[in-house]
Write a structure and sequence with these properties.
- The chain is built from 21 helices and 2 strands.
- With 481 residues, the chain is mainly α.
- It has a domain of 241 residues.
- Strands 1-2 form a two-stranded antiparallel ribbon.
- A hairpin with a 2-residue loop joins strand 1 and strand 2.
C-alpha cells in the first residue's frame, strides 16, 4: 500500500480550495442578478473551501516531492474529487433533478467534454452558465499542466517524448511544475482575454463573450445557448471560434517559448504542421460531402467550423451535420477520435501518436524490404526509442478496446447501436455531441438512463486522463508495497 498519503491530500486539498474560491464568482453574479441560486453557490463554496483547506492544512510541512505511484493516485483522485464537489451547485440550485445529472454535467465540464444534460440554456440562471464556463476553463488549464509536468514522468501512452530535462525524476515534479505552471497559466489567461475581446467586437454580449472565450480556448464546447454557436448565425463569430479552437489545440509550452523570444518554435513543430494539414484535408472532404444548401461559401464555413470543432474535441455546432448527405455520420464519427496536439487542451488520441504509429509502420515495412538496413524512427527530428513506439501502439490498441467495451456496456443499458457507439466515442474522446436523434448535435444527453450516464462519466474521465493513469489503479500489484 502507499505508505504516505500526505502529498496526495496536500494537492487535492489545494485544488479543492481553488475550486471553492472559483464558486464565489457565480455566487456574486447570481446575487447581483437577484437570483436565489447564489445561496447554492455560497454553501457549495463554503463546504468545498472548508474541506480543501482542512486537507491542505493537515498535510502541510512535508518535503516537496512525489513518487510515481503517488502521482498516479493523486491525478485520478483529484479529478474525481473536483467532479464531486463541482456537482454541488448544479444539484443544490435545482437546475438538474438528480445527483447523477449533476455529476455528469460536472465531469463533462472538468474533462472539457461538453456533453450536457441541461436544457433551456437560453433562460438558465447566469451563475450556472458562468460556472459551466469556469469548470471547463479550469479543466483545460489543469490538463495542460498535467500534460507538461505529470504525464511525461508517468510515461503514459508515449508522453515521455515530451519529458523536459528539469523533470528527470518523478520526485522533481512538484517544485518544477509549480514554476512552469505559472507561465502556462499566464499564457492561458492572455489567450482567453483575446478571445473574449474578439467575441465582443463580433457582437456577443459581455457575459456570453467571457463564457464562450473560456470554453473555446479550453476546447470544451459548453455554450450559453441551446443552439450553441449556431445561435449567432455569424460567419465572423464562427471564424473567431475556429481560430481560437486551433490555438487551444496547439502545445501551450510553444506559446511560452514564443513569449520568451522563440516564435519560430511553433511553426517548426512537426506535430503542429501535421495537425493543421489534417484539418485542411478533413475540411476539404467535409466540403465535398456537404457543398452547402445555401451555396458553396456557406458549405465551406459550415465544414471548416464543424470539422475543427469535432477534431479538437470542442463540440460546438453551427448545424446538425448528422442530417447532411449520406456518409457524413461515418465521417464525423471517425474524426472524433483524432484530437489535437499533446500539451494542449484538446483531447482524443492526439496527433503525435498517429505520427509515431506511422513511423513505426514505416520502419517495420522498411525492415521487411531491407533486412540489413538501419532505420531510425524520428519525431520532431529526434530519435524515437522503441519503448516510446511500443507505448504509443499499446495506447491506441487499448483506446479502441475500451471504446468497444464502453459501447457494448451502453448498448446493454438499452441504447440503440448508433447512440451507444457515438456516446462511447464522444465520451472517451471528450468531444461532446454524439450522433442520432437522441444525442445528436442538436440534442442533449438528458434523456439517457442513469446507468448510461455513469458509464459515460467513467469513459470521460478515463479518456481525459490518458487511459493508463486510471487503469493502473485497478491492477492489484500497483497497491502492493
Amino acid at each position: 500500500m502507499i505508505s504516505n498519503l500526505r502529498p496526495i491530500l496536500l494537492i487535492i486539498g489545494l485544488l479543492l480550495a481553488t475550486l471553492g474560491c472559483a464558486m464565489i464568482l457565480p455566487a456574486i453574479v447570481d446575487l447581483l442578478d437577484n437570483n436565489n441560486d447564489w445561496e447554492a453557490f455560497a454553501f457549495a463554496a463554503a463546504l468545498t473551501l472548508l474541506i480543501g483547506l482542512g486537507l491542505y492544512t493537515g498535510a502541510r510541512g512535508i518535503p516537496q516531492g512525489m513518487t510515481t505511484r503517488q502521482a498516479f493516485v493523486m491525478t485520478t483522485f483529484a479529478w474525481v474529487a473536483l467532479g464531486l464537489f463541482g456537482a454541488l451547485p448544479y444539484l443544490w440550485s435545482g437546475v438538474v433533478p438528480t445527483f447523477t445529472d449533476a455529476f455528469f454535467e460536472s465531469i463533462s465540464g472538468l474533462t472539457t467534454t461538453g456533453s450536457t444534460v441541461i436544457t433551456g440554456l437560453d433562460n438558465a440562471p447566469p451563475g450556472i452558465l458562468l460556472w459551466r464556463g469556469i469548470q471547463q476553463w479550469l479543466g483545460g488549464l489543469g490538463i495542460i499542466v498535467m500534460a507538461v509536468a505529470v504525464l511525461p514522468m508517468l510515461q503514459v501512452g508515449g508522453m515521455q517524448l515530451f519529458k523536459m530535462e528539469a523533470f528527470d525524476t518523478a520526485e522533481k515534479i512538484m517544485p518544477r511544475a509549480t514554476q512552469i505552471s505559472g507561465s502556462l497559466t499566464l499564457v492561458f489567461i492572455v489567450i482567453t482575454l483575446l478571445c473574449a475581446a474578439a467575441y465582443l467586437v463580433a457582437g456577443m454580449e459581455f457575459d456570453d463573450a467571457i463564457i464562450h472565450a473560456m470554453t473555446t480556448v479550453a476546447t470544451g464546447g459548453f455554450s450559453t445557448k441551446d443552439a450553441s454557436i449556431g445561435f449567432y448565425d455569424s460567419n465572423l463569430i464562427d471564424a473567431i471560434a475556429v481560430f481560437f479552437m486551433i490555438l487551444g489545440s496547439i502545445p501551450f509550452i510553444l506559446y511560452v517559448q514564443a513569449w520568451q523570444g522563440q516564435p519560430a518554435k511553433i511553426w517548426q513543430n512537426s506535430q503542429v504542421q501535421v495537425f493543421l494539414g489534417v484539418l485542411a484535408v478533413l475540411t476539404a472532404i467535409a466540403w465535398w460531402l456537404h457543398p452547402g444548401e445555401g451555396g458553396r461559401a456557406s458549405g465551406f464555413f459550415e465544414s471548416v467550423f464543424n470539422v475543427t470543432s469535432i477534431v479538437t474535441g470542442t463540440g460546438y455546432t453551427t448545424a446538425d451535420y448528422s442530417a447532411w448527405a449520406p456518409g457524413t455520420n461515418a465521417f464525423f464519427f471517425a474524426i472524433m477520435f483524432i484530437g489535437g496536439c499533446a500539451g494542449s487542451t484538446s483531447c482524443g488520441i492526439k496527433i503525435f501518436r498517429f505520427q509515431v504509429m506511422f513511423q513505426t509502420i514505416k520502419q517495420h515495412l522498411s525492415r521487411i524490404f531491407y533486412p540489413n538496413g538501419i532505420f531510425i524512427m524520428r519525431f520532431n527530428g529526434k530519435p524515437v526509442e522503441e519503448s516510446v513506439s511500443a507505448a504509443v501502439m499499446n495506447f491506441i490498441a487499448v483506446y479502441f478496446l475500451l471504446f468497444g467495451l464502453f459501447a457494448i456496456a451502453l448498448n446493454l443499458t438499452g441504447l440503440d447501436f448508433l447512440t451507444a457507439m457515438s456516446a462511447a466515442g464522444t465520451a472517451i474522446s471528450n468531444v461532446g455531441p454524439g450522433l442520432g436523434s437522441e444525442i445528436g448535435p442538436s440534442s442533449t444527453f438528458q434523456g439517457l438512463n442513469d446507468t448510461a450516464k455513469w458509464i459515460m462519466c467513467a469513459a470521460m474521465l478515463t479518456g481525459r486522463l490518458e487511459l493508463f493513469t486510471v487503469l493502473v489503479l485497478f491492477v492489484p500489484r500497483f497497491w502492493r508495497a
